[in-house]
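U., I forgot to send this yesterday:
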Amino acid sequence: MNILIINGSPKKSGLTSQMLEVMREEAANNGAIVDVVHANDLTIKPCLGCMACRKTGKCVLPEDDSIRLLEKIKSADAVIIGAPCYWGNIPGQLKLAFDRMVYGMMRETDRFPEPLMPGKKCILLSTCTTPWPFNILMNQSRGAIKALREICRYSGFKIVSTVERGGTQKHPKLSEQDYTHCVKAARKLKD
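Result:
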């Protein structure tokens, strides 16, 4: 199994990254080939909103890392997407990547968007500084998961697990409970 992890956190040693690393290790220990992409390492120009890609299936902008990331997503059997919460949503660099890849993830039709990743397994992860349960009640980590869920749902991904962790400012270290949640989530990719 080929698994792609997309890390939307700018902090390579932050809690989002630590939790994704647990999932990477678990998947690799179960025989998967795992590739990790850090969104902040990508060079991606902003979407122009011209909608030409919806008709042609190709972006009008010069090739950049969004095209390479889309190819990685297409060739993966499963995708794990992790992002810290920024204002109840995902970080801009990760959103930018998905904005630019929309034409390769769903196709416009006369009625309803056609998903181009049907049945591909996916795990969603979000962390935030807002403490539990307010991270969920106030749509902080829940807002980031909701944004990722929208992208994945319209693309046809089968979301097999979501992991949310609040209170990272007060408790920034990976806990045993975090570790367990991440291992269990990663194991759902092989079911």
